[in-house]
Amino acid sequence: MPSAVQQDPGPARMRRALGVKDGVAIAASSTAATTSIGIGMGSLAAYAGRQTPALLLLAFLPILGIALSYARLNRTEPNCGSGYTWVGRSIGPWSGFLTGWVVLVGNVIFMAYTGAVTGSVVLQFLNKLGLYSVWGLRLDPSSTGVSTAVGLVALVAVTVTAITGVRAATRLQMWLLIFEYAVLLVFCGYALIIGDQPFSLSWLNPFDIGSPQALAQGMVIAVFIYWGWDAAFSVNEETRSASDAARGGLIALVAMLGLFLVGALAFQRVMSNGELIHNGPQALTFLGGRLAPEPWASLPLAALMCSAFASLQSSVIPTARGALAMARDRTLGPVWQRVHPRYGSPAAGTLVVMAMAALLAVLAVGIPKLNEMILTAVNSIGLTVALYYGLTALACAVRFRDSLRKGPVRALRDVLVPAASALTLFGLGCYLVRYYATLSDHFEASPDNGWFMLLLPALFVLLGLATAAWAKWVRRSPYFTTGRGTDGDAIALPMDGSGPPLPTPAPTPTEG
């Protein structure tokens, strides 16, 4: 009796279901303006003083150049690996792998620390509701251990939503954004009007910042605060059009600039510099209490809680997709490239990311104060963000160098602005490395110890190079032979090295 032959449907693939609004939601949630304003302005004020608005404007310039570089590269070659793929093809596979690696490691660390921040915000909100202990356990927002435990629950929850569908996750993020931005704009707008701290034009003058060291350190923190808009490019294989991801990322970045400036000016109209630094991660809660009675004073805290959840979720999404792109080239293991047949998401990789972040969060409990935990993370990740942003912008300048002969507009857009942005971030990074190296005369596990601040970025890079060597000589990844990543429509790489051969990579494009 003849039997029907069932054709293998092939490997599961991610679904193209996202548009510009989804890209904006992912980028804006990842940047987390409310969280950055709520917990980051105190850190900026510690270095820039009352010139925090000027510092945010100054840091925006190279970041805008980086964003334009991403958009230009994405138009030519949309790939969920983004910088990993673009840098690998334009500069070289070792630089490309390092770009993907620091994004992966940096995001995992950020998620670990953001989980603790989310837990702290939840505990603050419970305290506002009059709940100070459960079963004899004190719900202390400043306790790293308790905050981390609550944050782990939040991390599991956002991981489940990231696995079951990125479209549903972006819809949730959009509603969270609408609520938190409405609250943020109302309170900050009111603070601008009634604040008793006199406004000064010097707030917009970066030359009034105390020292070159303070300017450089503040710039790194500001770059870190802007970090996240590039998450929109991690879903460019799931958008209906390649340009949707670029538009989403750029719209979110410009919106972040406006929100950051409004927030910084509002804080300075209500608080002195000492108050802003002293309140640190609870500055937004302090602002709400200063401007309104309860229950309205708790609205900024509710907005901060929504922002922290959305930021945590939007960090899971790009991390797993960047690792997926690397796994397609066998630079990472096959577990990262497994796409869920029902949900169309890299489910296995998402779970691994969550597990690594959770483990790191538990280990980080050894740092006693949440404020020190946040500062250590910012100092460590800021340098690596500057590194991979700079490499990606440099890749744009290298790839489109022929535009130098095609008129001033093309030369400026494709080469000069990306190159200038890359050199700015590289110069900033080198200056800070030198400063940190001479800051302390001994090593100590403290966020103000220069050698400790250098240790984590150095470990990221060294571990990345070791992993790259393993991928090249043990996994025998084709990425290190061709320098070209596998595109989203390519046949998935077999897990055991058998099966159909890899598709022949297309020639490196020079124009889109």
Describe the protein in words.
The structure is a single chain. With 512 residues, the chain is an all-alpha fold. It has a domain at 20-371: Up-down Bundle (Amino acid/polyamine transporter I). Helices cover 67% and strands 1% of the residues. The protein is built from 17 helices and 2 strands. The protein has a two-stranded antiparallel sheet with strand order 1-2. Strand 1 (133-134) and strand 2 form a beta hairpin. Helix 2 runs antiparallel to helix 8. The N and C termini lie far apart (55 Å). It is found in: Membrane. It is a multi-pass membrane protein. The chain crosses the membrane at residues 23-48, 54-73, 94-126, 146-163, 175-194, 214-233, 245-267, 301-324, 345-367, 373-394, 415-437, 449-471. Residues 32-473 form the Amino acid permease/ SLC12A domain.
For this entry, give a set of tags.
2 strands, disordered N terminus, Amino acid/polyamine transporter I, mainly alpha, 512 residues
Mind sketching the topology for me?
Elements: H1 20-31, H2 33-48, H3 52-76, H4 83-90, H5 93-128, E1 133-134, E2 137-138, H6 144-164, H7 166-194, H8 212-226, H9 242-270, H10 273-279, H11 283-291, H12 299-328, H13 347-363, H14 370-399, H15 408-439, H16 450-473, H17 479-482
Antiparallel strand pairs: 1-2
Helix pairs in contact: 1-7, 1-9, 1-12, 2-8, 2-9, 2-10, 2-12, 3-8, 3-9, 3-14, 3-15, 4-5, 4-14, 5-6, 5-12, 5-13, 5-14, 5-16, 6-12, 6-13, 7-9, 7-12, 8-14, 8-15, 11-12, 12-13, 14-15, 14-16, 15-16
